[in-house]
Amino acid sequence: MGDSDAAGALTRRRRATLAAGRSASLLPMNGRSAAVCQDSVTAEVSRDDGQGKRDRSLETVRSKSKSEKKKCRNDISDRLSCHKTQQSLLSSASGYSNYRGVLNWCVVMLVLSNARLFLENLLRYGILVDPIQVISLFLNDPYSWPAACLVIVSNVFILVALYTERQLSKGSFTELVGFLVHCTNMAVMLTFPAAVVLLVPSVTPVGGVFVLGTYTILFLKLYSYKDVNMWCRELSTVKAKKLARSLSCKSQIHMHIPMFTREDMYYFVFAPTLCYELNFPRSPNIRMSFLLRRLFEMLFFTQLLVALTQQWMIPIIQSSMKPLEDMDLSRMTERLLRLAVPNHLMWLMFFYWFFHSSLNFTAELLRFGDRQFYKDWWNSESVTYFWQNWNIPVHKWCLRHFYKPLLRRGFSKKVSQSAVFFLSAFFHEYLVSVPLRMFRLWAFMGMMAQLPLAWFVGHFLRGNYGNAAVWISIIIGQPFAVLMYVHDYYVLHYRQEAD
Amino acid sequence: MGDSDAAGALTRRRRATLAAGRSASLLPMNGRSAAVCQDSVTAEVSRDDGQGKRDRSLETVRSKSKSEKKKCRNDISDRLSCHKTQQSLLSSASGYSNYRGVLNWCVVMLVLSNARLFLENLLRYGILVDPIQVISLFLNDPYSWPAACLVIVSNVFILVALYTERQLSKGSFTELVGFLVHCTNMAVMLTFPAAVVLLVPSVTPVGGVFVLGTYTILFLKLYSYKDVNMWCRELSTVKAKKLARSLSCKSQIHMHIPMFTREDMYYFVFAPTLCYELNFPRSPNIRMSFLLRRLFEMLFFTQLLVALTQQWMIPIIQSSMKPLEDMDLSRMTERLLRLAVPNHLMWLMFFYWFFHSSLNFTAELLRFGDRQFYKDWWNSESVTYFWQNWNIPVHKWCLRHFYKPLLRRGFSKKVSQSAVFFLSAFFHEYLVSVPLRMFRLWAFMGMMAQLPLAWFVGHFLRGNYGNAAVWISIIIGQPFAVLMYVHDYYVLHYRQEAD
């Protein structure tokens, strides 16, 4: 390298004496760049890597020492040098990583391709939206309202629970008696509506889901109510013992005295939570604008969901009956993927409609302080994280009244977790099979399948891959179950009619 | 508020003496929370806003002063309070903004919906991919290779340019003569191949595009070559004058002595740039792994592009001929959107294939230092930014040899910019119309339409909206032009055959 250095210096001197460009041809191209324009050189030094760096920097030092930079920085010689050593942005050598625009790209692509699907759908089927038809989903004949009646009846169970707790607090019920009353009360709560839905023909599937949903929620609420009041009694007895030993009256500040008023009970029944508490955090006042915005969202999304179902879901489902009967695998997959998109979008809308709009609306109306109805499940990198964060009221209930009690009873974490999934699976099946009046266990298996899935994702996928896996399981899993049920329902009812 | 405070303190004391829960019912729910559990209170104070804050904080101070927190922090009373005042993540009140998962969602949705389209396509058309057929796009009869011959001929023009510059530097050509020779040389470069493509029937459209593309690139290169050498002469004359005045021999270091060797010329011809420079920045050595990766990408994407065209583009284009003839607007839109997706994806692949893989491959092979062939156009929030950054070689050329010279000649920025777009529009039309042998001006108008579009986006859209607008213009604009040309070509050729 020393030689080339010397050579470089030499030739530079030589070139300085106006020798013709021939001599320059002896040099490697790199060497020649010294002659062009000092500031292009100084510019390069910072970027250029490896060979020819040393003599360049020498060169620049020399140039800096001389006061000729201003001359060199004239227009023409700026024009002459327009390249500098640098990497392409996409090659790993350049540490570039700003792909902000890609998100916009994804959004635009999704919107456009769905606009296309929408247009194709309109061209093929015309407009199928029919809001009136929705009513028929709830009512078979407008003179009997079984669903509504059942919901009204549910008050009985609420009052039974309240009455029992009153007796227990007074001491006129022993713990055992109270426990038995509660158990029977709740057992009836689950069996009675199911029986009615199964036996009364005028209950429509949608009406059935509505009723059983209401009763399930009540069941969970009353279970929590019973537990909490029991814990209060335990606590106060503990305190009483303490008091007996040390007579420091201070310790009684921690006495828990629940109040068994109807207001308290019904506030809990309507409050957007499944976990009873002696005193819920309250928001200072009702924000009217917030309330109205949520109300508007509720109405808007209801309409949108109905419209999309009629225009988008039903045609696909109907068109996928034939392939399902023929067990034509490739076409079934095609139909499944075709159904996945609208189904998923509607699930997202439903999520927002229920967990953000509706629950926040209720909470605002009741000045209920705790608005954490969901956490950031969209970022979940494992299946368990998703199930722990997308439905906080239920998760909270499971944790407080099922998972932790099991742990306290000495069960292992694995067992308790499986038990939670089992419970959830049971209720999923309960809420689907009974209204449809057919027991296929798709929903049950769907929930139980989450356990191996969770194990797989947790062990083999991290970060964005885990997140993607969760998304796929949501997007593909649901429409699969939907198709199964619809197919069976279709076969059960319409095929029989056909025969 | 003072009263309620006093009342709170009073009741607290009263409750301390084991009075029954009745008394508590006199209080508002908020007040009661004081009794539950100190640490739940302390927890709330930090979050709870507005009403009942003052007496709470009092309460906590009092609690802190007493040493009873450890007792209160026992299991049961933790169980009892499970809510705290907080906002939902999606409501603006919570400053939450982490939607990392949404990008994964978009990707998954895009992949799934395209998988669906792919499957549908296979089910409908079967496999249409046929690599051999590609050759027929370049050759009509395998015994005449007009495209190849034209490319070989192009060397003549290169050597003419080199010869002219040599004469100019020797001074045996005057500036005027040199200018005239260059002009004729370049005029012929544009007209001659076009004439051949138009007149020789054995030139296929694809072959034609290839030839004209090569000649256009050469044209731009030689234009730059001529300009740069001219500037060098100007500079040296300036220097000579300076020298005459002040005899400081130092100033001659900035003498620019171009060398007119064939190696130098052909290095520039093959180098991945359109702007000539006396000495290009060089990379120190050839990175074999980098070279091979780029080579693999080149081969892979070539195959993929061919396959997708045959399997995806052609069926859609064929199926959209009928609606185009009938001028059935809604169906035309549907077909346009249907074409937009594959067309856009293939454009992206082409971009990567050409601007990243191919140009980097050439650059690595020639140890060409400047790898900036594109900038971050995917983040562009204005149309002008896109055109300035997606194709850097051309942008650099326009800036250096067309835009700035115009400015120096005293034209306004607006005029010069429009002129650049006009030039680009001309070449777009030139590269499409001549090979297709029909002059429809779609490409020309497409480019010129960028001016009003740029004005609109620049004035009315900012940030992500601007970015989205740019994406839409790319995704929708191209297939529109494609459909127009294909339709006209189809009408011109196949319909005539039909008649």
From TrEMBL, chains A, B:
Gene Ontology BP annotations: triglyceride biosynthetic process
Recorded catalytic activity of this chain's protein: hexadecane-1,2-diol + 2 hexadecanoyl-CoA = 1,2-O,O-dihexadecanoyl-1,2-hexadecanediol + 2 CoA; 2,3-di-(9Z)-octadecenoyl-sn-glycerol + (9Z)-octadecenoyl-CoA = 1,2,3-tri-(9Z-octadecenoyl)-glycerol + CoA; 2-(9Z-octadecenoyl)-glycerol + hexadecanoyl-CoA = 1-hexadecanoyl-2-(9Z-octadecenoyl)-sn-glycerol + CoA; 1-(9Z-octadecenoyl)-glycerol + (9Z)-octadecenoyl-CoA = 1,2-di-(9Z-octadecenoyl)-glycerol + CoA
Residue ranges of the TM segments: 143-164, 176-200, 206-223, 337-355, 442-461, 468-486
Keyword Ribonucleoprotein among UniProt keywords: no
Keyword list, A-Z: Acyltransferase, Endoplasmic reticulum, Membrane, Transferase, Transmembrane, Transmembrane helix
Primary subcellular site in the record, as a coarse category: endoplasmic reticulum
Alphabetized InterPro entries for the sequence: Diacylglycerol_acylTrfase1, MBOAT_fam, Oat_ACAT_DAG_ARE
Its membrane topology: Multi-pass membrane protein
Region (Disordered): 42-71
Location of the active site: 428
UniProt-annotated location(s): Endoplasmic reticulum membrane
Any one GO MF annotation of this record: retinol O-fatty-acyltransferase activity
GO cellular component: endoplasmic reticulum membrane
Subunit comment: Homodimer or homotetramer; both forms have similar enzymatic activities.
Sequence similarity: Belongs to the membrane-bound acyltransferase family. Sterol o-acyltransferase subfamily.
Listed name of the protein: O-acyltransferase
